[in-house]
Amino acid sequence: MSALGEWFEQNQGSCILKSNTGLDCPGCGAQRSFTALLNGDFAEAWHHYPPLFPLLITLVLIIALLIRRHPQKGKIIRYSAYVTFAFIFVNYVANWVSGAVWE
Q1: Do residues 80 and 58 make contact, with C-beta atoms less than 8 angstroms apart?
Q2: Of 36, 47, 92, 101, which residue has the fewest beta carbons closer than 10 angstroms?
Q3: Is a pLDDT exceeding 70 seen at residue 100?
Q4: pTM of the model
């Protein structure tokens, strides 16, 4: 386990929505997924929160396109965000349909 991964695991916050309602939010599992990713466990990261991967790709794209003055940066960022939000939505609905939201 990496030192950063260990620190992150020990300092994870709790989900306000889940603690108040018992329901998962669309981002539930992201912290555990990020911790697994920091520790190099890609399969475990995917298991906890698959949308983390397109989210990180979108963040890297945003940073790269802000550094480089690409003429289509707005369009690229917009479509990347659409794909990421769609991924989050599909993941949430799939968890809801499978009953994992109320576990």
Answers
A1: yes
A2: 47
A3: no
A4: 0.73
Which whole-number Å values give the CA distances from 55 to 18, 30, 52, 71, in the listed order? Answer: 22, 10, 5, 22
Q: What is the pLDDT of residues 13-55, one digit of tens each?
A: 677 777 788 777 788 888 888 888 988 999 999 998 999 999 9
Find out whether 84 and 55 touch, Cβ atoms under 8 Å: yes
Angstrom distance (rounded) from CA 25 to CA 38: 22
User: Measuring CA to CA, which residue among 11, 19, 20 is closest to residue 38?
Assistant: 11
Give the Cα separation of 26 and 40 in Å (integer).
24
Within 10 Å of residue 35's Cβ, how many Cβ atoms? 24
Both tokens of 28, joined, read: 């539930």
